[in-house]
Amino acid sequence: MSRCSEEIRMLNDIGILDFVLTELTLFLDTHPQEQAAMEQFNHYARIRDNMTRDFSKMYYPLTKDLAQSTTEWRWGGAPLPWEGDC
Amino acid sequence: MQDYFNYQSCQADRWPIAMAYVPWQHFDGLCEDFEKGYETGTIFPQLDKPFTGRRCTG
Fold this sequence. Notes:
- The structure holds 2 protein chains of 2 kinds.
- Chain A is mainly alpha-helical.
- Chain A is 58% helix and 0% strand.
- Chain A has one domain (3-78).
- The relative contact order of chain A is 0.16.
- The model of chain A has no long low-confidence stretch (mean pLDDT 90).
- Chain B has a domain at 15-47.
- Classes of the chains: A mainly alpha, B little secondary structure.
- Chain A binds chain B through residues 15-17, 19-20, 23-24, 27, 30-31, 34, 36-37, 40, and chain B through 25, 27, 29-30, 34-35, 37-38, 42-44.
């Protein structure tokens, strides 16, 4: 099951946003009153949530809470790490 | 990159010797390109200090 480039691009972008949120978390851990950093964190956390929600609808759920469904259980739909071209 | 640490003005010579002091990081915004930040390992331009085998260049 080859993975289309759009799927790979979205996964890459979600991964980068995870990295951005991790960096901001590390900064906020030592600067808990820094408003500007908190605003950036909230901004990118919202974007990441929307991206993972969209990805989960389009391809397969990335987290269990996004696997909710009334028609079909898709949690096992993701390709296994050793499958395909990744 | 604005340098927040001024050795003279902060009278570092009065601090106890043989201790390590790390200047406090101030929030100076994030890098423009997150993909590049991901590759360099930080989204904070102040922390992007590539090791070149000699003096730090950051």
